[in-house]
Amino acid sequence: MTERLFFALWPGERQQRTLTRIQRELPDRPGRKAHPRDLHLTLVFLGDLDAEKRACVEEVADRVRVAPFTLNLDRFGCFPRARVLWCGVSERPRSLTALVHALDEGLVGCGFCPERRAFEPHVTLVRKARPLPARGLEPPVVWPVAEFALVIARPGESPRYRVERRWPLMP
Ligand code: 2AM
């Protein structure tokens, strides 16, 4: 038995509401809007894990020591090839980079290969979308981040994602 898992930042209710409003106010075009309760920012995608690998991954998360930080989601953009519309940041907090780095580094010990693609922090709003021009988001979505989460993907369900476990950020 395997589960499809990833590490993510999960928005609080306030950020979720704001992101949902931004999503709703996008021009009415073809695309699949993410369920409001599925909105998140992926830190590391892990893929299909068995129980042993999952335990290893959770031990990696137990060892992470990174201070809380604030994200300012101040950009709207798209990945034209992936056909994804997203919200992102123009300034990446150092703690966010440190968090992803700590996870990536620890995961090598569980047999994962380091991610070769550059980390592009984003919250996916719409999939299978037609591209829209990038622009600033005014006012930005201010998101104080005090924890990270291990999340399970459940294909075919809605909402699709379920937070399995949370870890508080601490220096
Ligand atoms: P996305 O939002 O840009 O599609 C669960 O699938 C989460 O992991 C999504 O947020 C997805 O990013 C991200 N992800 C990163 N790499 C992935 C991969 N190879 N396959 C599926 N999802 C991936």
How would you describe this structure to a colleague?
This protein has 171 residues and is of the alpha+beta class. The chain is 23% helix and 39% strand. It is built from 3 helices and 9 strands. The strands form 2 sheets. Strands 2-6-5-4-7 form a 5-stranded antiparallel sheet, covered by helices on one side. The chain has a 4-stranded antiparallel sheet with strand order 3-1-8-9, with helices on one face. A hairpin with a 7-residue loop joins β8 and β9. α2 (51-62) crosses α3 (94-108). The protein is globular. The protein binds adenosine-2'-monophosphate. Residues 6, 42, 45, 84, 124, 153 line the site of adenosine-2'-monophosphate. Adenosine-2'-monophosphate is lined by residues 6, 42, 45, 84, 124, 153.
Arithmetic mean pLDDT: 96
What's the arrangement of strands in the largest beta sheet? 2-6-5-4-7
Q: Provide the structure class.
A: alpha+beta
Low-confidence stretches: none
At CATH level 2, the architecture is: Alpha-Beta Complex
CATH superfamily: Cyclic phosphodiesterase
| Cα-atom radius of gyration | 16 Å
- Return the CATH class: Alpha Beta
The largest sheet is:
5 strands, antiparallel
Number of distinct beta strands: 9
Question: Helicity level, as a percent range?
Answer: 10-25%
The proportion of residues in beta strands is: 35-45%
CATH topology label: Cyclic Phosphodiesterase, Chain: A
Concise account of the structure shown:
The chain is of the alpha+beta class and 171 residues long.
List the helices and strands and how they pair.
Blueprint: E1 3-9, H1 13-24, E2 32-33, E3 41-49, H2 51-62, E4 69-79, E5 84-88, H3 94-108, E6 122-127, E7 135-145, E8 147-153, E9 161-168
Antiparallel strand pairs: 1-3, 1-8, 2-6, 4-5, 4-7, 5-6, 8-9
Helix pairs in contact: 2-3
The structure holds adenosine-2'-monophosphate.
Residues 6, 42, 45, 84, 124, 153 line the site of adenosine-2'-monophosphate.
